[in-house]
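dumping the sequnces here before i forget
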Amino acid sequence: MTFHKGGVVSPGKTIRVGEGFTVLPFRKESTEELVHRIADKLAPQIRRTFLQAIEALKEQVPVNQITELLEAGNLTAVLEALQGTADLTPIRQAIQDAVEQVAAPTAIGFGLTFDAVNERAIRWAREHSGRLITQVSNETQTAVADIISRSLREGTEPRRQARLIREIVGLTRRDAGAVDRFLQGAVDSGMLRTRAEQQAERMARRLLSRRATNIARSETIRAANMGSQLAWEAAQDAGLLPPQTFKVWIATEDSRTCPICAVLDGNVVRLGDSFNIEEEATSFDIDGSTITVAGTRPLRRPTTELQPPAHPACRCSTGIVTQPT
Ligand SMILES: [Zn+2]
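..and the predicted 3d for all of it:
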């Protein structure tokens, strides 16, 4: 058995897994509770460090510098300047803390030492925070390229472009596009340019704040769940978990509102494998306290993940199950 489809969501701590599987309890606090506790504790820290890093990056690239580069027609240099060398160590540290604070008690629950998982936690946090930072930076670059190409078509003054570019640092391409369109629309409808720019700036700030919250939620859930994954892998390597160890996707109680995880709930894969995230529920059958997924449709962009989250604001976790011998 590698995959169990059409999961049944059970609110509370009960989960249904394939016949013959047992969920192994190792601590008083369940994995799910630990993952949520650590994620909630560290989310504000990740949010803060993300916003500080973006602020620092903005400070490194003053409007004058962007204006000069745009005037010189050196667009590559604009993008390079925004690639930034801001100190992102605090983000990596916060992610590492989240991994470790789940990995350590889980490893210790198996009789392992903290050292047995520490190196894995550090390595994962370094690689993952690197990927996250690259992703944020790439998105800023694409958004800036969009603005530059639109400005070229419409002949927007370099200084105005520069101000907008600086404003949208750290936003997703979509949000940056929304700010740009808002500003153009306001000016076109006759609003005073300075007033329109002020409003666009406020909008950008609001969107950045929302993005920081989203990143903090997703990344702490991801890091905390990876903490379980790394500890279980360490336990398996040490012979404390059988080679035939599986993990089960556990949707949170609020999965009534989460059509993707309602389908994933109860799915079982090998410890080292990824879950296939490819369908979302289109309808539920609510019977007492259980929800049965009655219909699904394929996701536009299916992915695979070693651990939750499956989507933004996902609050899922996993548990391990072993086949009885
Ligand atoms: Zn979820």
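Residues 8-322 form one domain.
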